[in-house]
Amino acid sequence: QVQLVESGGGSVQAGGSLTLSCVASGYIGSRYYMGWFRQAPGKEREGVAVLYAGGDRTYYADSVKGRFTISQDNAANTLYLQMNSLKPEETARYYCAANTWAQMPLNSRNYRYWGQGTQVTVSS
């Protein structure tokens, strides 16, 4: 059974930075999509950043390009999201997700495995 556990959320002022971590246990596959999604109260879950492990491809939402960086430490089975220049509108619960295939990598419906999420609050 695949388990994903996020950490690293917290409160930060606008313009600040945070790094989220997601530790994966269990076998997902030799090639898989793994990424970060976020959901604010009353809004739909949206894709933030995804990477394809096996092809070294990354996908970012337009709103975070140039500010967020997704990376992976294979030895530690950990996925990271470095977030810089955070904005108040990015306050949300951030989730880690994974699946062996994702036709549309930034679409949350493509993902089978989910963590419980970690809260990020950005104050103005």
Question: Helices and strands in order, then pairings?
Answer:
Blueprint: E1 3-7, E2 10-13, E3 18-25, E4 32-39, E5 46-53, E6 57-60, E7 68-73, E8 78-83, E9 92-99, E10 113-114, E11 118-123
Parallel strand pairs: 2-11
Antiparallel strand pairs: 1-3, 3-8, 4-5, 4-9, 5-6, 7-8, 9-10, 9-11
Describe this structure in words.
This protein is mainly β and 124 residues long. It has strands at 3-7, 10-13, 18-25, 32-39, 46-53, 57-60, 68-73, 78-83, 92-99, 113-114, 118-123. It is globular. The mean pLDDT is 95.
Estimate what percentage of residues fall within beta strands.
over 45%
Number of strands: 11
Distance between the termini: 40 Å
Helix content: under 10%
Low-pLDDT segments: none
Specify the biggest β-sheet. Answer: 7 strands, mixed
Q: Which value, in Å, is the CA radius of gyration?
A: 13 Å
Number of helices: 0
Average pLDDT score: 95
Order of helices and strands: EEEEEEEEEEE
- Shape descriptor reads globular
Q: What oligomeric state best describes the polypeptide chains here?
A: single chain
**Computed structural class:** mainly beta
Give a short synopsis of this structure.
The protein contains no helices and 11 strands.
